[in-house]
Amino acid sequence: MRFKPTSYTLVNVSNGREFTDKGWTLSDPQGGEPSLIRAVYKNKRFTPREDLDGIYRYADWMPIRRILKNSCAPITYKSKGLAKHLGLENLYITFSGWNPKIGAKFRTCSFKETEAYSVLARMSEDEKRVLVVQSAGNTARAFAQVCSDNKIPIVICVPEDSLHDLWFHKKLDKCVKLLAVPHGCDYYDAIALGEKLAQDPHFFLEGGAKNVARRDGMGTTILSCVEQMGRIPDAYFQAVGSGTGAIAAWENAERLAADGRFGENRMRVYVSGNEPFTLMFDSWKAGSRALLDLSPEDGRRQAAVILAKVLSNRKPPYSLAGGLFDTLRDSNGDFFLASNDNIMYWMMQFRNLEGYELLPAACVAVASLAKAVEEGKVQKDEFIMLNCTGGGTLGAMSKGYVFKQPDLILSPELPAEEVIKQVKALF
Q1: Is 68 within a domain?
Q2: Is 236 part of a structural domain of the chain?
């Protein structure tokens, strides 16, 4: 179908300066203190599009130029099993994964598809450069699948230790190129490799949390919830690696409050991590906007032992204006931790209570909700959103799968010119 691009401008969170998107603007062109930028949409009312399918029913609050095929929107329902177990009267679960019985058909089983379908739809159809995405696993799978389906060239950088996450139902299109950093390297090293590649004008970085399309794609989770709940939640729970999804939820809660039909934004944002990778948790508990020191060696060691590998970002958007520190402070939120044992316990409990399995990261959020109930941080009659960011892999992989092997394995220590030379040879 013919799609009219969404109408919006951009605003600098730190100073309120509004400006025009030049196509792939990731920061205020006038500079200033480190700050996220946000999209300011022409349509101030939350208006799901009945004429569009999948995630694009939320297109009016996504900074996009086109519609891509095979998308799915997050699914929200009022919990019975987990809610009864925790003694909660108004627990709503927003699920982004594979569970056709409730209408959830994320083929890669992760809410990272919400990012991919938004970011890639922000790109112009006549873009000649090649997109570069860095990932710890789930983002790579999502972008690879969406790019393969829609024939969009991309280079994805991942740790070799995350290759087990790169499964697909069939062989990917040749437009998808996969680079891996060797065993023992982590997500931060994959980021460094991608940044070297993007020094060549033939390639450009997706931008991570700085990309308004990534955040507003992830923010569709709360839009799904509010459609069912009819109001802004009192409390929001999500596990975080970078914190981008929680930032996105807060931003959309602000938009919903400005709409005026869904109540004031008093939503407390509760995020959680997998110990012993506790960089943001430690920084938050210390009351520090600046991230505390974490050596690369300690970061890699901590990342190696956590069960939810995707929750191990050493370079998260925590400190800058509009980042996770501000989100937690402004929402009167808090940070929790879950151990590997907690994750395993809630993976089994959730399967018994709700009838489908979650990915480890999503179970970190479930564990944190249980802890918040235990500590009295949420009341039994409050309206609570639990963002379950992925699951259903057993069902999805039962349909058959193949693994994507890396096209190159490159050290993050390689000079940029050598990285660029070897990757260009793939095209």
Answers
A1: no
A2: yes
